[in-house]
Amino acid sequence: MNYHEFTDLWHKTVKLEKMPGFHPLHTKETINSSSMNRKYRTYFYWPRLSKANMLQISAEISWVWDALLSARYATTEEDMLMGIFGGFGVHEDTEPPWLRIDLCLSASAGFDSELPLPLLDQWQRWLTDLSKEIDPFLPGGNLKSNKLAWHGLPEATIRFDLQGATYLESVKFRAWQGITLPRHWDDPEKYDPDPSAQLHHFVSNLRQSLKIWEASFESFL
Fold first, then answer.
1. Which secondary structure element, helix H or strand E, spans residue 220, and what is its range?
2. 115 CA to centre of own chain
3. For residue range 35-92, what is the model confidence (pLDDT) as tens digits?
4. Closest CA to 198 of 8, 3, 9
5. 41 near 28, Cβ under 8 Å?
6. CA separation for the pair 106, 27 (Å, rounded)
7. Cα–Cα distance between 28 and 138 in angstroms, integer?
8. Which stretch of DSSP H or E encloses residue 57?
9. Which whole number is the average pLDDT over 177-189?
10. Distance between CA atoms of residues 64 and 102, nearest Å
11. In this structure, what are the phi and psi dihedrals at residue 114, rounded to the nearest 5 degrees?
12. Domain encompassing residue 131
């Protein structure tokens, strides 16, 4: 599975999941001319704005398909091992490669919105309630079941005006999920499943996470 095959599978998964209320916009694909890494980035915007147009809810999805992955999929596992180890390499076993998909949930104030910074106890209550609701749907919510996943805590960006008042500009929640990729075997008896099921699970959880993320700000503001 090369970069284009994976990207096509991602787009098909998003379409199959139907993603109600989401619109992928401003998708960008770039190639680093020094490392030859490929970077993919897209955004999903929640169509409703929270609390009378005060906040824009969105999610950023990105991944880096590095040159090593491209080189590995340019040939078969057997030929790769032969090139590395010589004639003995064909008898060696390998671990399936995996791709890290980064997720960033965001809630940003509008250009004409001024949101006073919440009190500390209000922030703590919101964080506790949000964690209970969203953790099961975020990567890394259950580390025992999947070590190739992680999520942090919400990060707030604030600003000060000339009088010293503090305002909330944005809140972001970062996470990442590892997707296991199939190896390209020359031996027809060897087979690795494609990542369709993993991507469907990721997109389904993304949809639910965004709903919880958006709803949480109704009580936060």
1. helix 196-220
2. 27
3. 999 999 998 887 655 554 578 888 999 999 999 999 999 988 888 888 777 766 566 6
4. 9
5. yes
6. 17
7. 24
8. strand 55-65
9. 91
10. 9
11. -125, 110
12. 3-220
Q: What is the dihedral of CA 26, 139, 135, 47, to 10 degrees?
A: 10
Residues 6+ apart with CB under 8 A from 156: 117, 123, 168, 170, 171
Tokens representing 219 are 């009580």
Asked if residue 106 lies in contact with residue 170, where contact means CB atoms within 8 angstroms, the answer is: yes
Label residue 53 left, alpha or beta by phi (over 0 means left) and psi (-120 to 50 means alpha).
left
Which is more confident, 53 or 29?
A: 29
154: amino acid identity, one letter: P
For residue range 76-114, what is the model confidence (pLDDT) as tens digits?
A: 888 888 877 776 656 667 889 999 999 999 988 876 666
| Contact predicate 13/46, CB 8 Å | no
How far is 136 from 53, CA to CA, in rounded Å? 28
Domain count, the chain: 1
Structure tokens at 184: 């390209």
Q: What is the three-class DSSP state of 153? A: coil
Which residues lie closer than 8 Å to 147 by C-beta, 6 or more apart?
none
Q: End-to-end distance of the chain based on CA atoms, in angstroms?
A: 45
207 in Cβ contact with 19 (< 8 Å): yes
